[in-house]
Amino acid sequence: MLQLENISVHYGVIPALKGLSLEVKEGEIVALIGANGAGKSTTLKTISGLKRPTSGSIKFKGQDISRMNADGIVRLGISQVPEGRGVFPNLTVIENLMLGTYVRKDKQNFEKDLENVYNKFPRLKERKHQYGGTLSGGEQQMLAIGRSLMAAPKLLLLDEPSMGLAPIVVKEIFRTIKEINRTSGTTILLVEQNARMALAAADRAYVLETGKIVLEGTSASLRANPQVQGAYLGGKRDRHPAGTVETSA
Amino acid sequence: MFWQQLVNGLTAGSMYALIALGYTMVYGILKIINFAHGDIFMVGAFLGLIIIKQFHLGFVPAFLLSMVIVAIIGIIIEKIAYRPLRKSTKLAPLLSALGVSIFLVNFAQLVWGTEVRSFPPSLQIDTFQVGSVTLSNIQIYALLISFALMLALHFFVHKTKMGVAMRATSHSINHARLMGINVDNIISLTFGIGSALAAAAGILIGLYYDAVYPVMGYTAGLKAFTAAVLGGIGSIPGAMLGGLLLGVVENLGAAYISMGYRDAIAFGLLIIILLLKPTGLLGKNIQQKV
Fold first, then answer.
1. Is the pLDDT of residue B221 over 50?
2. What pLDDT digit, counting tens, does each position of A77-93 carry?
3. Does B164 lie at the interface with A, CB-CB under 8 angstroms?
4. How far is A12 from chain B (nearest CA, A)?
5. Which domains are delineated in chain B?
């Protein structure tokens, strides 16, 4: 469904991605994990058209989208939940959700889709007339995901859905992500620093280090990989304070 | 005298508000000050006058036609003078705006002459008395039309898809693009609406003072910009409030203190409000994004 081939991206002269290739097949959940600054967000921004690659190609359903504008890419059925959620604080919850349908032609489904999102996230229904900026972090993440669902995307890009959220909220968000994939068959590419959650949810994953893919495989194989365990699943002491005992990998 | 000055102040203030909306809407999205906006207002006044005088159209069609033409001019100005500079420093579009301003004034002087022009006498001023207040029909038109336009704008921004997209774009251009919003179209629309409102104010002020001249945009533009900053630049209700407040305060000040201090009072008010509330009356605190 989505193929990135040999993608390089620069910020000024500084390279952020150095010949990255990855593939997402229809119906899959694919995770892109890696440390802060590895280029995960840049990868998503390049797919969604916010950032232009300096070389390489991005194909979505066989069509090259690497030179397309962001709004055109949304129209093809790729919706991104940006890093930091990208909720519009000056719009109400319902206005935020409405913007999700901005590119859709089939307006008659609006009420039904809205009900669908409210069923997934009942909190949003309670707060539908509140401004986006008044929501908690978890509610904003729900709103951002709900808004993307309103676009009825074929491919959903999620940038750090766990960022800054309490563990219990993270679990709820990931449960919903899996449910979206299972019930509506939406293909998902998610970027995460929380490798444990990401590998638990994804079918396959890529490990990104300083702009390059260094490992790839099924989630199960990566979880079993000692390198991944050491670097991303709690082996690093700075991510888990001394005394923390890891019971499972 | 108080009620008379209040009505006069509201009339002037509603004009300031119409012009201030253009400054604030453009700033809200692009974070630039369109210093040519006062001159767009002047072009609107001239076009209204020319259409009435030379094409013998009535006030209403002339008014609407001028708004439409000026909207198109505003869109073209953005495309030529600001769009190519969107990725450059903030100073570049500012200088470009000053260039457009000088161009428009010189264009008007070349084409329409430098003298003060007046509207044809067919648009008679009728005055009538309500209690102690003397009102002119033009004052009433000006008030009614400007309030109707402001209501229409409020409705557009809150109740239509494009309006919601415009507010989204004013918060974050990139996040708006991720919604599939064509940000270039929204920016064109913003310039179009802002310019049309300025044209409306231009014709109404031209009628009210019965004077249309090439540099009329200078003071009006500066006052309207003050109104926009006073209300909180970037905020649409702020521009409306700032305009009305500025008009009322400077008229009351001129009446009770001294006519000569009219402008000093207007800009003094700006200084006081900015000292007390640097973001303006309805402006939001702008958080630095990390």
1. yes
2. 999 999 989 999 999 99
3. yes
4. 13
5. 2-116+131-276 (1.10.3470.10)
